[in-house]
Amino acid sequence: MLTGCLALARSHEVLRVTHFFLAELLLVYFPFSALIHTFTFPFSRGFMGAHYGRRGVKV
């Protein structure tokens, strides 16, 4: 966020390139990190609960 705020000035082209690189790196890293479990946990828990909560008898 700091590089993004500093890159707003037109005279800091190096910071702008650095900010874009770090943002793209984060977009690549995020799906493979442990942080993704924080956001996908409720959906996974709901799906598994709905799936395994059935007893196999269709009503």
Can you walk through the features of this model?
With about 60 residues, this protein is mostly helical. The protein has one domain. Helix content is about 70%, strand content about 0%. It has three helices and no strands. The longest helix is centred in the C-terminal third of the chain and has 18 residues, at about 35-50. The radius of gyration is 21 Å and the shape is rod-shaped. The mean pLDDT is about 80.
Low-confidence stretches: none
- Through-space gap between termini: 53 Å
Structural class by secondary-structure content? mainly alpha
Question: Cα-atom Rg, whole angstroms?
Answer: 21 Å
Q: DSSP strand (E) fraction?
A: under 5%
Extended strand count:
0
Largest sheet: none
- Silhouette: rod-shaped
The helix/strand series, from N terminus to C terminus, equals HHH
Summarize the SSE layout with pairings:
Layout: H1 2-6, H2 13-29, H3 35-52
Keywords:
59 residues; mainly alpha; 3 helices; 68% helix; rod-shaped
In short:
This protein is mainly α and 59 residues long. It is built from three helices and no strands.
